Amino acid sequence: QVQLVESGGGLVQPGGSLRLTCGASGSILRPNVMGWYRQAPGKERDLVARITSRGSTSYADSVEGRFTISRDYVKNMVYLQMNSLEPEDTAIYYCHLRSLREYWGQGTQVTVSS
Length: 114
What we know:
55% strand; mainly beta
């Protein structure tokens, strides 16, 4: 069993920055992919960014150049640095891990508003 716990969400003004953190614990198999998804009210849950256990990254077009995903393989942590935030980035952000199974965190709210 794997547990994912997110932190770092909050309220920020447009143009501001936030850093999300996700800690993974339990039986984590490799290879795996860790990532961040987000879900805005009335919309589907969409991929934001992901990073493989080899360090390969990919991003949604809407966040490319503004968000950066990274991992600490020793601590089993994944981070999402979000810069130049826009109101359209407002959503619940979920940490995700996929190995033989997939796991989700409980989500953390990010609100971008003046």
